[in-house]
Amino acid sequence: MPAFLTGHFYDVANPELWVAVGLLIFIAIVVMAGVPKLVATSLDAKAAKIQGDLDEAARLRAEAEAMLAQIRQEKAEAEAQAADLLATAEADAKRLEAEAKARIEESTARRQALAERRIAQAEAEATQEVKAAAADLAAKAAQQILAARIADAKSDPLLDQAIGQIGGKLN
């Protein structure tokens, strides 16, 4: 049973009564001075500050998630662009290789044709030189033979005329 329900508790000589009365007076003074209101205000301010910090943290988290999503999207776009650039570069390389092969084949064909023309021209010139040398040699041989015959015989007008015509016909 609680002590304040007994009759001995309310005796004026009882020190516990005076402690209880002092406590009640102290509580009344604290209430009248507005201490509970100050404590409540202080607690409300701290709660509001904590709520503001939580709201700021939530906002920062949302911004971070949005930035993360944006960065992932940019990364995906960059990878797609890189893949496109790689494909384009490969296509360009293949095209350039084909063009280079075509140019090399064309250049080779032109050089071969030029070489064949030069060879044909050189053959023609060599043939002409051989013919000219053969004609000169034949004319000199004929001249020497005829000169030897003429030296043995007197001048023959027919022979002189034939010798004059040989030089013009051979060249």
From TrEMBL:
F-type ATPases have 2 components, F(1) - the catalytic core - and F(0) - the membrane proton channel. F(1) has five subunits: alpha(3), beta(3), gamma(1), delta(1), epsilon(1). F(0) has three main subunits: a(1), b(2) and c(10-14). The alpha and beta chains form an alternating ring which encloses part of the gamma chain. F(1) is attached to F(0) by a central stalk formed by the gamma and epsilon chains, while a peripheral stalk is formed by the delta and b chains. This is ATP synthase subunit b. Component of the F(0) channel, it forms part of the peripheral stalk, linking F(1) to F(0). The b'-subunit is a diverged and duplicated form of b found in plants and photosynthetic bacteria. It holds the Pfam family ATP-synt_B. Residues 47-117 form a coiled coil. One of its GO terms (cellular component) is plasma membrane. It is found in: Cell membrane; Endomembrane system. InterPro entries: ATP_synth_b/b'su_bac/chlpt. Belongs to the ATPase B chain family. It is a single-pass membrane protein. One of its GO terms (molecular function) is proton-transporting ATP synthase activity, rotational mechanism. It comes from Brevundimonas naejangsanensis. Keywords: ATP synthesis, Cell membrane, CF(0), Coiled coil, Hydrogen ion transport, Ion transport, Membrane, Transmembrane, Transmembrane helix, Transport. The chain crosses the membrane at residues 17-39. Its main location: membrane.
